Each structure stands twice: as C-alpha cells, then as structure tokens.
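Suppose you are handed a protein chain with no further information: no name, no annotation, nothing but its sequence. What can you learn? This example shows the usual starting point.
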Amino acid sequence: MHDEVSSATFNPYHMAVQQFELAAERLELSEDMREILRQPKRELAVNFPVRLDSGRIKTFTGYRVQHNVNRGPAKGGIRYGPDVTLDEVKALAMWMTWKCAVVGIPYGGAKGGVICDPKDMSPGELERMTRRFATEISIIIGPHSDIPAPDVNTNPQVMAWMMDTFSMHAGYSIPAVVTGKPLSIGGSEGRNDATATGVLFVTRRAARKLGMPLKGARVSIQGFGNAGSIAARLFYNEGCKVVAVSDTRGGIYNEAGLDPAAVLRHKQERGSVVGFPQAQAVSVSEVLEVPCDVLVPAATEGVITAANAPRVQARIVSEAANGPTTPEADAILYKQGCMVIPDILANAGGVTVSYFEWVQDLQSFFWGVDEITKKLEMIMNRAFDAVAAEADLYNSDLRLAANMLAISRVAEATQIRGIYP
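A reasonable first move is to predict its three-dimensional structure. Written in structure tokens, the prediction is:
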C-alpha cells in the first residue's frame, strides 16, 4: 500500500493507486488481478527537437501512457503544461480506464502530455511541436488502438494538427484517430459542452436523490476554463445561483449570484475573472469554502485536501476536474454528509461524446445535437443510478462505489480474455 497522500508531496499516481487498492480490497480482487490492473500496460516517453521562431532548436519531452485496453481501444486526452510529469499522466490514464468502464463505453484508458509552456509559444511553434509529438507517438496511436483528445491547454485546433499529421503519414484522411476536432473535419456536435453537460446531468440526479431542489441552489465553481465556464452557464440556465468562480489568477464571490455570460465577457476582455465589478475578490482556495449547495472543482488535481475539507460547506461536490479530492478529504466529506460525485462519473460526459464522435467518424454518418444530448443524458443517468445503487449496497461513498463498479467491469474483461500467449 502506498503512503498516505500529503499535499506537500502530492503524487497523483500514488493517489490513483491508493483509490484502486481501496476498491480492490472491498471487491476482494485476487492479488494476480491487482498485479495486472495496478500499473499501465504501456508507457512511451519521447524527446523530440522543434525549431523555434528564433531559429534555435529546443528539445521537448512528451508522454503517452496506455493503462488498459481489454475493453477496447485506449482513449484519453493530451495535455500541455510546464508541470506535466509521467506519474501525472499514468494516474490520468488509470482514471480514464475506470471512467470509460463506469459509463459503459467500449474503451480502455490512456493519457498523454508534453512538458512545455504553451503561453510562451507562438502559434507556429505550437503547431510544429504538436505535429512532431504526433509523429513520435504515431507508433502507438490509431483509430483502433489509441485515440487522443483535447485536455488542459489543448483544443480542437491541436487535434486538427494531430489528425492531419497522422493522415499525411497514411496518405489518406483518418478523422477517427482523434476526437474533439473542429466540426469541419469530422468533429461532433455537442462535444465542446459535453463535459459540463454531463456534470449538470449527474448533479441533477444527485440532487433528486438527496431531495434537494436544484432550482435556486447556490453553485461555486473553481476553474473558469472550458468545463467551468460552460458549467456556470448551464447551472445558471437551470435556475441555479452561481455565487463564486475562479481562474488561475484568483476568484470572485457574490452571494446574490453572478451572471456567467457577463463574467465570461470580462474574462475575455481582461484575461481573468479577477476584477469583475459586481463581486468581491476571494482567493482560488476560498472559492472551495464559500457557502454553497453545489461545489464544482473544475481546475486541477489535489485541491480538496485533509487541510481544507472540513471548511467545504457544499452538500454536493461534482468533480468536473480529474482527481481534485484526496482520499483523506473524501473520508472527511463523507462524514460531513457531503455527497461527492467522483470525477470518473461526473466528468465522463466528455469521453462519452468523444465516443459518439469516433463512432460517427468510423461510419461517416453524423447525428444532430439533440440526438447527442439525449443519448448523453441517458448514459449519464444510467451510470449515476448504477453507482448510487452500488454505494447503497456496500454502504460506501460514491467514489468507492464508482471505482468498484468500474474495476469489476475491467477485471471481468481481463479475466475473460485471459493472458496471451
């Protein structure tokens, strides 16, 4: 068993393994099966040169990790950032395996990342780096083996470059090699809003289970990027009061409620939500602790810890980000009677609509946004109900229940397929 995760030496992979062991223990999984599922199937690290605008050559390091592919091709995002580590990518790949299993889509888990600071790079440098990285990992990605998608600091344009690079090598267009692409080259309707839409669907389901009306509920959102800003809009349209939001520079709070559209305009003009006129300034961490009914962590891993969990006032924490709550914080929130909808369930709307995009690309036949939203709601509701039933059965929190449900599905596929040769 790994050491307890402390905020000083936060290691996402140790946390992911710790969560896995807790669920494996309750499932009474054999040591052989744990041995297989505990670590990734494949880890690729690449160091590759890119010519900068100045003419200088810089070597970048990137990773692609495939955790498990027994239920289908590997699936997972590519993130760009100065603090990307192999352990972070391994953790995210493991979470993707469970996420795909918990919503019942036929994928295994993968993740990728490049150590870089995209804020310091020109569009040309970003494109050259992306294309070179795509070339380096092209030995393991493909429409039937491993399908990347956007993640932190990557977007539909980055996916377009990856798809084009992969297609150029093959000599014909292969849109199904990535998801999260622009609509003009085989992207899917509804993909951009999918993560936040899924968060809304499961939160609605959770509120109903708790007998708490969602209309008029106070919502606080940490992170105002793609998932956070869209979640703010969707909850606002649902009749909720969005009382606080934050981005990397700071947060804003107004107990009477904020208008997400106005906040987004302010962020687009000023580069941050900070300084929004109809609100008081709060720190990024205070956004987690303001009086609210629903808390949506939509930024990065490890933000709710044993140190601040006792100050979280929400009745529902809906994890739009991956891994925002440490195992110690989970135990504290559960005791406080706070329902945490775990990341592998709450933010699975993104990978679910990615799956729809992939299916549409493979058959070259596309659906309308209404059909996609209807299918997404059905899958998210079904997954929430299955996890809630598991939690009631084992008298556990939703994370343990979601992990147990997912791990048992992956273990079953692994068992049935057997070990080759």
